[in-house]
Amino acid sequence: MFYGNSFSDRKFRGQVRKYPLNYGGLASYNQSLMTTLKFAVLPGDGIGPEVMAAALEVLTRAAETEGLTLEPREADAGGVAIDRHGSALPDETLRVCEKSDAILFGSVGGPKWENLPPKEQPERAALLPLRKHFSLFANVRPGLLYPELIDASPLKAERIRDGIDLVCIRELTGGLYFGQPKGTRELEDGDVEAVDTMVYKKSEIERITEVAIATARSRQKRLCSVDKANVLENSVLWRKTVTDYVAAHAPEIELSHMYVDNAAMQLARDPNQFDVILTENLFGDILSDEMAVICGSLGMLSSASLGLVENRHGHRFGLYEPAGGTAPDIAGKDLANPCAQVLSGAMMLRFSCGLDALADRIEAAVRQAVVSGTRTGDIAFGGKSVGTREMGQAIMENL
Ligand code: IPM
Ligand code: MG
Questions:
Q1: Number of domains in the chain
Q2: What sign does the CA torsion over 106, 98, 130, 310 have?
Q3: What is the pLDDT of residue 16?
Q4: pLDDT at 181
Q5: 82 in a domain, yes or no?
Q6: Ligand 2 centre from 184 Cα, in Å?
């Protein structure tokens, strides 16, 4: 049976604003003074709750120094929500999110829920509907490896002597993930057929291109759009749209195009040839995992998912989450690296609050803590390592 879109049709309708083209980064353009930040906290499963606790401590301390009050509101999502409420994304959780300025997300999933039907598993049933509900079409994934941590990367040191620094802008609410029809059915001859539909509108490509342009403008102004235009109709439209859009709106950006298979290879060969990568949903999913592995530890990588909706403060509503997953093997043992969660919180302050200076300070504190040798096991290279809590404390001391 082909099934319809199982996601909530009750789309969130906040105030919608087009991405302005002329601002430095992706951050705010409305510097209204903000004194309280209400954000939903969805710690989720596995290591989620412990890295979230460490991150909230860091964020609270950092905010205090700027006279900003944080009002985190915790809600259940993922496996824990399935256990407690019978749904990975309960209505109550959605309501908490709708009333917030941003969502700080931990991670969801784990062996306990692996035998559920795929559509009901925590990752798919919590994350995808959240993205769709809030139209979070722009996924910003930095691939950052400090030069001091190059040992953590599987790449040869001489290729990444100065570390790695690139950003992947992944389209997040279109393409094969959400296209209709989608489903599995038995055919008359007894065979079984499954269909996913890859579909993009020109307008969807343009709006994600706008985000990529804004990102490139705040960096080295080099943009590489990744597609499969030698095979896919979608990619032909993608390439033409990106080319036209950049030519019309951002001629100062150096635009290149690359097929996705080549991009996967080039990332492993010489990641710093890229500054900003722009790509569609599934390609971005795959390339961003590759980016994560070449950057050494998943425990260091943050991400932001941004949409069109503005929060109360005139900044962009977004969902912020670490890239690392729930790491069930080390959950509850005070071993997990909280840096990615802290850095995701910094992105939240940057994009959903316009607090760039504060975000910069938190990012610098994480870096300083790590560089000065306070490291969790994933980045300690067999040397002395600390636990989640101690890592959080070290970051606070470096604020
Ligand atoms: C990611 C994840 C998700 C995705 C899964 C958990 C649905 O892999 O955020 O990259 O495929 O987008
Ligand atoms: Mg992924």
A1: 2
A2: negative
A3: 56
A4: 97
A5: yes
A6: 23
Class of residue 160 by CB neighbours under 10 A (exposed 0-12, middle 13-18, buried 19+): buried
Among residues 146, 227, 228, 245, the one annotated as catalytic is 228
CA–CA separation, 237 vs 326, rounded Å? 36
- 145-203 residue pLDDT tens: 999 999 999 999 999 999 999 999 999 999 999 999 999 999 999 999 999 999 999 99
Q: What is this structure's pTM?
A: 0.91
Residue 289 a catalytic site member: yes
Question: Residue of the nearest CA to atom 2 in ligand 1?
Answer: 285
Task: Please indicate, yes or no, if residue 192 is contained in any of the structural domains.
Answer: yes
Coil, helix or strand at residue 213: helix
Residue 238 token pair: 């993608």
Using alpha carbons, list the distances in angstroms from residue 240 to 206, 226, 233, 264, 310: 10, 12, 11, 21, 29
pLDDT of res. 7 = 38
- 3-state secondary structure at position 163: coil
Residues 144 and 182 in one domain: no
The predicted structure's pLDDT at residue 290:
95
Token digits for 298?
A: 């998943």
One domain, residues 238 and 279: yes
Q: Alpha helices of the chain — where are they, by DSSP H?
A: 48-64, 79-85, 91-98, 122, 128-133, 202-217, 233-249, 260-269, 281-294, 339-351, 356-371, 388-397
Residues 17 and 95 in one domain: yes
- Give the residue carrying structure tokens 């919590």: 126
Listed in sequence order, the residues at least 6 apart from 170 whose beta carbon sits closer than 8 Å to its beta carbon are: 138, 139, 141, 279, 280, 281, 283, 284, 285, 287, 288
Verify whether ligand 1 is closer than 6 Å to residue 141 (CB atom).
no
> Which residues of the chain are under the pLDDT cut of 50?
1-9, 20-25, 27-32
Q: Are residues 1 and 149 in the same domain?
A: yes
